[in-house]
Every structure is written in C-alpha cells, then in structure tokens.
Write a structure and sequence with these properties.
single chain, alpha+beta, 4-stranded antiparallel beta sheet, 10 helices, elongated, ATPase-coupled intramembrane lipid transporter activity, P-type ATPase N-terminal domain-containing protein, transmembrane helix
C-alpha cells in the first residue's frame, strides 16, 4: 500500500487493542535523551574528559613516572590529583545527564489520550475529536519549525462524534499508514472503520512537540510513539559541546606546556655539558647507572625527569575551579528572581552546568527576509480607484526595512 525502501512497508494500528499492536513490537513512548547509560558512562565520559589538554598531559606524566630510570617523583603525587579531578567532573556530568521519567512514558501505540489546552502533544496522534466547533484543533509548532503562529488541524467527520469516553472506549478503527519517517509536512494513511475507508493526511495529525492552543480538550489516537515520532526522527546524535573558555584554557595549557618543554631542553643541554666537561672526571669511582653509557643519553633521560619535576607548572586545579564556578553559577540561575515567570509560576532551570558562560553571547546574526538590510526604492506608476484612473506622474517612495 505504501512504498518504502525498508522491509516494513506499512504500519497497522488498531485503536484500544494493545494485544494486537504489541505483535508488531512498536516502540514505546519512553525517550532517553541522555548521552550515557550504565555501561557507556565510564568510557565515554573519560574520553570526553581527556579532550582537556591538562588531563591528557597528566596521564602522560603518570606513564613517565612508572619508568624507574626517569622517575624523579612518586607516581602517587600525580594519580591522586588526576583521579580527584576526573571524579569530580564525572559526578557533575552524571548529575547533568540524569533524566527523570516523563509523564507520558507509559503511552503505547493504539492508545487514545486526552489533551487539554496549553499541553504538549506527547506522541504523534491522529486527531479523533475536539471540543471546538467543526472538531477543529489549534496548535503551535514552534518546537518543530520555529513558527509561533497557530495552525489548524481537523478530525475526520466520522470520528468527530466521538466526544465522550464511552464512545472512545468502544472505538475499534484501524489505521494503515506509512512507516516512521522524518517528513514533518507529510502523512499518508487510511482509517478503516465500519467497513469504510477514509483517507488521512497531515491535516489530521498532531505531532509530538506541538502545543495545544485555544482548544479546551481534544482526543487523539497514538500512531507513532517515542523514537518513531517525527520529532525524534529529525533528532541527531548528542554532540559533545565545548565553550570558548574550554578552548581558551586548552590553548593556555598548550603554551604553558611549550614553555615547560623549553625549560626542560635548556636544563637537559646543561646536563649534557656538565656530564661531558665535569662528570667524566668522576667516572672512575661514580659510574653511570645502566643503561646510561654516554652524556647524550644521560641528557635525554634528564629531559624527561625535568618534565616530571616541573609538572606543577601545568594548572590542573584550574579545571576544578572552573567546574566549581559553573556549578555555583547554575544555582544562581535557578535562584534568580528576575528570571522568574509569574504568569507560568516557573523559575529558570539550568539543565546543564557546562555551557553557562555561553548564555547571552551573540556571535552571528542571520536573516531570511529579502531586503531586510537593504534599501528598497519603489516607483509609483498608475492606479484605478472606483473606475477613475490616477497616475501620469512619478512618485518615488523609499522604504527602509531593518
């Protein structure tokens, strides 16, 4: 009936019949938007944390300290601060990534749900009936396409009469439609009910992410749930975001590391000169330790020893300080009375503590309206009002659009 390159060429949904619908193993309405789970948290979080140059440096330093010939400090002095930093950041990331269960997670395909005014649409629904005249329904689709103007949806005339719970509970229509896809402006399907078939279009659908407006109540049949909804079909993978301060700190650490390498080179050259000019005089009673057999190899080992000794130049504590400041800043956002909305009785909520400093920063301005930043000059030619022609002269008007 519906062409699709995948194996599933159509979807069949029977209203109020979970046993029938569960045979197709449709997705539930539970959506997890977190980056981690119990299995992937440790490896993924460590991979993200070692994107920080300082963390990578101290891991490299720890490896060097395990080599006896160049280890000038105990490995314990490096692993303790490194584990402390990684643990604090991991706890913060796990807290940010924690996702609570949503209200509609138990909804299944084929269920009929009731929505009230100003409520988010929980799944992709076929509109069955509405409290408004002609069974109309008004929605706001800002979450889908960014448009805040109202859009109108209407149920089929044959289901508009299903306005009471008893009629909805006995409704046994079956929907045959296209499989899940990411086309927000298209829907093809049929409603089979009482030995008749009725065509369905996008005009009859309420998509997840929409908000019900100016409509007291409406009822809808769940067609797509959870990851099968068009909103989630358009969602990409969660990306690891870095702020400008993170990039700046990485750059500063690289410069500090470069300075430390220069210091190590200078000290290694000094060691080579001393071993050649002075140290050779003591070889008879104070020989080099194996595997050192010449002054150049001694200078090479000394370079890595100085890298270990100068490790305090790299400020690993700076990352901890920044994370603590971000955490405190997120609480200040939650407590800010100026960001409280009295109409909705809702306070601001910082859902992540890693991007606080990016709030309010404008980097680009885009415009999609022709002539927005240009000067339009229009020339009046002629017009006809009530059968009388006006014109014959030229009137220039200048319109500036900002």
């Amino acid at each position: 009936l519906f062409f699709c390159p995948t194996q599933t060429v159509e979807r069949r949904v029977r209203a109020n019949d979970r046993e029938y619908n569960e045979k197709f193993q449709y997705a539930s309405n539970c959506i997890v938007t977190s980056k981690y789970n119990v299995i992937t948290f440790l490896p993924v979080n460590l991979f993200e944390q070692f994107q920080e140059v300082a963390n990578t440096y101290f891991l490299f330093l720890l490896i060097l300290q395990l080599i006896p010939q160049i280890s000038s400090l105990s490995w314990f002095t490096t692993i303790v601060p490194l584990v402390l930093v990684l643990s604090i950041t991991a706890v913060k990331d796990a807290t940010d990534d924690y996702v609570s269960k949503e209200k509609w997670m138990n909804v299944r395909v084929g269920d009929i749900i009731k929505l009230e005014n100003n409520q988010f649409v929980a799944a992709d629904l076929l509109l069955l009936s509405s409290s408004e005249p002609h069974s109309l329904c008004y929605i706001e689709t800002a979450e889908l396409d960014g448009e805040t103007n109202m859009k109108v949806r209407q149920s089929l005339s044959v289901t508009a009469e299903l306005g009471d719970p008893n009629s909805l509970a006995s409704f046994d229509g079956e929907v045959v439609c296209e499989p899940p896809n990411n086309k927000l402006d298209r829907f093809c399907g049929l409603l089979c009910w009482r030995d008749c078939k009725y065509p369905l279009s996008n005009h009859n659908m309420l998509l997840r992410g929409c908000v019900l407006r100016n409509t007291e109540t409406c009822y809808g049949l769940v067609i797509f749930a959870g990851p099968d909804t068009k909103l989630m079909q358009n969602s990409g993978r969660t990306k690891f975001k870095r702020t400008s301060i993170d990039r700046l700190m990485n750059t500063l650490v690289l410069w500090i590391f470069g300075f430390m390498v220069c210091m190590g080179v200078i000290l290694a050259v000094g060691n080579a000169v001393w071993e050649r000019e002075v140290g050779s005089l003591f070889q008879s009673y104070l020989a080099w330790d194996l595997p050192v057999d010449n002054f150049l190899f001694s200078a090479f080992l000394s370079f890595w020893s100085y890298v270990i000794i100068l490790n305090t130049v790299v400020p690993i504590s700076l990352y901890v300080s920044v994370e603590v400041i971000r955490l405190g800043h997120s609480y200040f956002i939650n407590w800010d009375r100026k960001m409280f909305c009295p109409q909705c009785n809702t306070a601001a909520e910082a859902r992540t503590t890693t991007l606080n400093e990016e709030l309010g920063q404008v980097e680009y301005i885009f415009s999609d309206k022709t002539g927005t930043l240009t000067q339009n000059i229009m020339s009046f030619s002629k017009c006809s009002i009530n059968g009388h022609a006006y014109g014959g002269y030229t009137l220039y008007t200048t319109v500036y659009q900002i």
